[in-house]
Amino acid sequence: MNWDDESAPVTTGDGDRLVEAAADGEDRAVEAALRPKDLGEFVGQERVREQLDLVLKAARARGATADHVLLSGAPGLGKTTLSMIIAAEMGAPIRITSGPAIQHAGDLAAILSSLTEGEVLFLDEIHRMSRPAEEMLYMAMEDFRVDVIVGKGPGATAIPLELPPFTLVGATTRAGLLPPPLRDRFGFTGHMEFYAPLELQRVIHRSARLLGVEMEEAGAAEIAGRSRGTPRIANRLLRRVRDYAQVKADGVVTQEIAAQALQVYEVDARGLDRLDRAVLGALLKLFGGGPVGLSTLAVAVGEERETVEEVAEPFLVREGLLARTPRGRVATPAAWAHLGLTPPGQGSTGPGQQGLFDR
Ligand SMILES: Nc1ncnc2c1ncn2[C@@H]1O[C@H](COP(=O)(O)OP(=O)(O)O)[C@@H](O)[C@H]1O
Ligand SMILES: [Mg+2]
């Protein structure tokens, strides 16, 4: 099994954006090197870990192939890592692909028919698979069989093909988008939660040890607090802090060094980055806290609508800084406090312009 080869396209989304300019080949390789290799090394997610442990142990005891597993959760929480751990715990090889990579049912048929007995098939972003492929997958999951269609039009015939038993591990950022027939065919669904700061601290310590970075407890806590509950972000911030500590100090990551470094990379004490603060700043300073329409807000920060909606907003909403309402985006009192501004009517900020541009 090759831990470093993640052939699936890298997911982009909330968790993947931070310091993305720096997410080069070296970083990708480091990320792979930091992946926990068994359940014991996997930090946090107690419930999923315990449940999965039972599923895998029972399958091993029966000498059977493990049931299909669905992992859902935000980017960077450990879905890919867990799929590799499942294969490792079962002593099985793993094949990695993704929904968007499977355009035609034939692509899936080719992959399925080349699986060996007990192999783990990791299907990332499973909600983005094409319809015909999805229907083929139903049968493969349930009966370990596919119908390969030969020919076209009225003369086309379906040739049934037996598959060896395999374990499908599906990953999705949006379990809600999966059609129920697909969801129901998984024997086990693990929902990954955001990590608590103390858990991220453990992730950071572990990674620091693997990278040979000298890390003080308070330094790890500082990074953890800015990592948005996401191990991938914690690891990325750690690498940037390491760079800073090497160049500007003696390499030891103290709380002060971590805070200074992350200020340089424009990651604030709550984990907001430049884009998040731009969105929030525009909402407060230009639109008096809203409500303001998404398109207007996007134009104000010079970004695509989708970028604001899919990249910045989920975290701002989760942090209770922004609310999506039918009339538009609205800042919460916490948003004013976070940017150190005073809401209109309570002091000295400029005039609110809500309703001027749209909705
Ligand atoms: N529970 C965990 N413990 C330690 N490191 C983790 C954990 N979950 C994720 N990571 C780290 O975070 C990074 C991203 O994890 P990944 O499995 O690629 O997330 P996802 O597939 O959900 O987007 C990996 O490099 C991995 O080292
Ligand atoms: Mg992944």
From TrEMBL:
Gene3D superfamilies: 1.10.8.60, P-loop containing nucleotide triphosphate hydrolases (3.40.50.300), Winged helix-like DNA-binding domain superfamily/Winged helix DNA-binding domain (1.10.10.10). InterPro entries: AAA+_ATPase, AAA_lid_4, DNA_helicase_Holl-junc_RuvB, P-loop_NTPase, RuvB-like_N, RuvB_wg_C, WH-like_DNA-bd_sf, WH_DNA-bd_sf. GO terms for biological process: DNA recombination; DNA repair. Keywords: ATP-binding, Cytoplasm, DNA damage, DNA recombination, DNA repair, DNA-binding, Helicase, Hydrolase, Nucleotide-binding. Transmembrane segments: none annotated. GO terms for cellular component: cytoplasm; Holliday junction resolvase complex. It is an enzyme of class 3 (hydrolase). Mg(2+) binds at T80. Its EC number is 3.6.4.-. Residues 196-266 are annotated as: Small ATPAse domain (RuvB-S). It holds the Pfam family RuvB_N. SMART domains: AAA (SM00382). Residues 269-359 are annotated as: Head domain (RuvB-H). GO terms for molecular function: ATP binding; four-way junction DNA binding; four-way junction helicase activity; hydrolase activity. It comes from the Bacteria. The keyword DNA repair applies. ATP binds at L34, R35, G76, K79, T80, T81, E142, D143, F144, R185, Y195, R232. It is found in: Cytoplasm. Residues 65-198 form the AAA+ ATPase domain. It catalyses: ATP + H2O = ADP + phosphate + H(+). Homohexamer. Forms an RuvA(8)-RuvB(12)-Holliday junction (HJ) complex. HJ DNA is sandwiched between 2 RuvA tetramers; dsDNA enters through RuvA and exits via RuvB. An RuvB hexamer assembles on each DNA strand where it exits the tetramer. Each RuvB hexamer is contacted by two RuvA subunits (via domain III) on 2 adjacent RuvB subunits; this complex drives branch migration. In the full resolvosome a probable DNA-RuvA(4)-RuvB(12)-RuvC(2) complex forms which resolves the HJ. The RuvA-RuvB-RuvC complex processes Holliday junction (HJ) DNA during genetic recombination and DNA repair, while the RuvA-RuvB complex plays an important role in the rescue of blocked DNA replication forks via replication fork reversal (RFR). RuvA specifically binds to HJ cruciform DNA, conferring on it an open structure. The RuvB hexamer acts as an ATP-dependent pump, pulling dsDNA into and through the RuvAB complex. RuvB forms 2 homohexamers on either side of HJ DNA bound by 1 or 2 RuvA tetramers; 4 subunits per hexamer contact DNA at a time. Has 3 domains, the large (RuvB-L) and small ATPase (RuvB-S) domains and the C-terminal head (RuvB-H) domain. The head domain binds DNA, while the ATPase domains jointly bind ATP, ADP or are empty depending on the state of the subunit in the translocation cycle. During a single DNA translocation step the structure of each domain remains the same, but their relative positions change. This is Holliday junction branch migration complex subunit RuvB. It comes from Streptomyces triculaminicus. The gene is ruvB.
